[in-house]
Amino acid sequence: MSAKYFCANCGSIVEQGIKFCANCGTAVNAQQPPQKQAAPAAQPYTPAQPYTPAPIYAPSQQGAPVGVSPHNRTVTLLLCIFLGYIGIHKFYVGKTGEGIAYLLLSWTGIPAFIAFIEIFVIAAGSFKDERGLPVLTW
Predict the structure, then answer these.
(1) Which of 11, 13, 50, 121 has the lowest CB atom count within 10 Å?
(2) On the CB side of 135, how many CA atoms lie within 13 Å of its CA?
(3) Cα gap 1→16, rounded to integer Å
(4) Which residues contact 30 (CB under 8 A, 6 or more apart)?
(5) Cα(105)–Cα(119) distance, integer angstroms
(6) Which residues contact 33 (CB under 8 A, 6 or more apart)?
(7) How high does pLDDT run on average in the chain?
(8) Can you give the pTM of this predicted structure?
(9) Is the pLDDT at 20 greater than 60, yes or no?
(10) φ/ψ bin of 125: left (φ > 0), alpha (ψ from -120 to 50), beta (otherwise)
C-alpha cells in the first residue's frame, strides 16, 4: 500500500510516486504528507432570545391559574349590584361573551336573577375573571 499526499496546486490526493496530478494535471514536485484536519472547537450554546420569566397570570404546569386578578372586587360588586341585570360586571372583568349574552337576554329577567346570585359569589371571593383568576382585591 502506497502513501498518499496532497497536490500543491489543487489539494487533491495524489499517491506517492505519481509525477502528475490526475485532477489538475500539474507536475507534482514537492509532495507533502496529508495533515489531519482539526475538528472545529465547540462553541458555547447561546440562545437566540434571552430568558424572560413567565408573567404571574400564566397557568402553572397543573393547569391551575396562578395569582390574583388585577380587577377590583369592590368595583365588580358595585357594578353587579346596580348594573348586573345587563352584564356590565362581566364586561369589566373581561368576559365579553357573557356580557353580550346578558345584554341580549336582559328583557327576560334571567340575567337579573343570575346577577343577584353573583353578588354573593363576588362578595365571597369566588368570582373569576376572563383568565380564570379570582377577583380578590378590595
Answers:
(1) 50
(2) 24
(3) 10
(4) 8
(5) 19
(6) 3, 5
(7) 81
(8) 0.53
(9) yes
(10) left
**In this predicted model, what pLDDT tens digit does every residue of 74-108 receive, in sequence order?**
999 999 999 999 999 999 999 999 999 999 999 99
Residue type, 130: E
The span from the CA of 48 to the CA of 130, in Å, is 32
CA distance 15 to 5: 6
> How is the chain split into domains, by residue range?
1-34, 73-124
**What 8-state DSSP symbol labels residue 9?**
T
Angle ∠(77,108,105) on CA atoms, nearest 5: 65
Query: Could you give the CA distance from residue 22 to residue 83 in angstroms, rounded to a whole number?
Result: 93
**DSSP readout, 11-75?**
--EEETT-SB-TTT--B--S-B---PPPPPPPPPP--SS---PPPTTS--TTS---S--SS-HHH
The amino acid that residue 68 corresponds to is V
As a whole number of angstroms, the distance between CA 32 and CA 118 comes to 89
